[in-house]
């Protein structure tokens, strides 16, 4: 396998599950805050002073990717002054009771949210690029879960890479399509944060348009709504009750929810309630998977301190510019030249031009 210039486009071919047509996510959402929140909670919990507490929380964190071992040497180069790049995945299992939210029609785990978070040199701001799950991509050669190697394939739905080949293959795919070298991996299990939401007593989300999703049973009126863990999980999953029933609208919901979650946790008196602090930290660490380098409270705390200068007011999220696929209107492809110009700005640690944010696929 050889590293491929992301400006060279591959002609799509055809396979993938259902669903697409969506609209752009709001540009000023701040999903990186959930990452910083995770790290903040871990720091607070690690400072509790009891070894059993530390060991318990430390043992919750799972390592998914050994970057040096699993990604190999055939990767985009790391520029000396290119900042930090973090791949954040929101993984979503429909196993057990969680399957009821989709009428038990879906099984297994998928990556329903993918963000390439770029923290420029100096670490005072950040930008996160959302990759729509139904984007058709060229998947590089990857290791199979049961052994052996899967050859590179074109026209693969981005969401399927995680389910079939795991997080290391997702990182390889993102690096190949973007030319951006990823420094770390962070995965948040959506089913896991259901417990987190219940631990903090619910999250208030401002609903701009009524949501009525017959598949999940979610029925929300406009205005501020207090969501418990089960409702929150349905909210971040729903696409049938948003816009034209596709996935682009869901991206905005997920970003909105993560921002609301951070706001709610900030209201909690964590320092004044060690028991609640531990409960929240326990829920969060159980939902957290990282690369091997970050897979401990100490490593996460150190990384959190390195991000102290990031100002939340200077964070923004944009969606990868995409267009509806000409062969399958239920899928999208990277919209050029905007997508390549966006990745180039991130690789070179430059300000992202407004004109590259335009995306023909709107989701209705």
Q: What does it look like?
A:
This protein has helices at 32-46, 51-60, 67-70, 158-165, 167-178, 190-199, 229-237, 247-267, 274-286, 297-306, 338-347, and strands spanning 62-65, 84-93, 109-119, 126-130, 136-139, 142-143, 149-150, 153-157, 184-189, 203-207, 211-213, 218-220, 223-227, 288-291, 315-319, 322-324, 332-334. The protein contains eleven helices and 17 strands. A seven-stranded mixed sheet has the order 1-14-9-2-3-4-15, with helices on both faces. Strands 5-8 form a two-stranded antiparallel ribbon. It has a two-stranded antiparallel sheet with strand order 6-7. A hairpin with a 4-residue loop joins strand 11 and strand 12.
The percent range for strand residues is: 15-25%
Structural class category: alpha+beta
Q: What is the C-alpha radius of gyration, as a whole number of Å?
A: 19 Å
**Portion of residues in helices?**
25-40%
Order of the strands making up the biggest sheet: 1-14-9-2-3-4-15
Q: Low-confidence parts lasting 5 or more residues at pLDDT below 50? A: 1-50, 94-98, 100-107
Shape: globular
Major sheet size, sense and barrel closure = 7 strands, mixed
Helix segment tally: 11
Distance between the termini: 38 Å
How would you spell out the order of helices and strands? HHEHEEEEEEEHHEHEEEEHHHEHEEEH
- In total, the number of strands is 17
Give the averaged pLDDT, no decimals. Answer: 77
């Amino acid at each position: 396998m050889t590293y491929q210039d992301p400006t060279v486009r591959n002609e799509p071919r055809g396979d993938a599950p259902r669903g697409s047509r969506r609209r752009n996510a709001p540009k000023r959402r701040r999903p990186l805050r959930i990452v910083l929140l995770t790290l903040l909670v871990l720091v607070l919990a690690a400072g509790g002073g009891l070894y059993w507490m530390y060991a318990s929380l430390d043992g919750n964190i799972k390592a998914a990717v050994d970057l040096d071992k699993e990604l190999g040497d055939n990767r985009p180069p790391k520029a000396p002054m290119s900042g930090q790049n973090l791949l954040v995945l929101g993984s979503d299992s429909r196993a057990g009771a969680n399957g009821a939210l989709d009428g038990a029609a879906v099984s297994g785990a998928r990556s329903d949210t993918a963000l390439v978070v770029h923290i420029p040199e100096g670490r005072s701001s950040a930008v996160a690029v959302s990759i729509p799950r139904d984007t058709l991509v060229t998947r590089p050669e990857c290791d199979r879960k049961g052994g052996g190697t899967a050859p590179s394939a074109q026209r693969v739905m981005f969401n399927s890479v995680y389910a079939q080949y795991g997080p290391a293959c997702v990182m390889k795919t993102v690096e190949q399509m973007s030319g951006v070298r990823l420094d770390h991996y962070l995965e948040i299990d959506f089913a896991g944060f259901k417990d987190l939401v219940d631990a903090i007593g619910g999250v208030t989300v401002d609903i701009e348009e009524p949501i009525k999703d017959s598949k999940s049973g979610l029925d929300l009126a406009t205005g501020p709504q207090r969501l418990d863990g089960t409702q929150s999980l349905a909210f971040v999953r729903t696409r049938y009750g948003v816009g034209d029933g596709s996935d682009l609208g869901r991206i905005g919901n997920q970003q909105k929810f993560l921002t609301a979650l951070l706001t709610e946790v900030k209201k909690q008196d964590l320092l004044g309630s060690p028991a609640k602090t531990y409960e929240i930290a326990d829920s969060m660490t159980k939902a957290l998977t990282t690369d091997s380098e970050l897979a401990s409270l100490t490593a996460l705390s150190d990384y959190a301190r390195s991000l102290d200068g990031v100002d939340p007011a200077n964070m923004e999220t944009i969606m990868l510019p995409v267009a509806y696929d000409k062969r399958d209107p239920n899928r999208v492809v990277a919209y050029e030249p905007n997508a390549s110009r966006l990745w180039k700005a991130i690789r070179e640690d430059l300000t992202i031009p407004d004109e590259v944010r335009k995306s023909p696929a709107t989701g209705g």
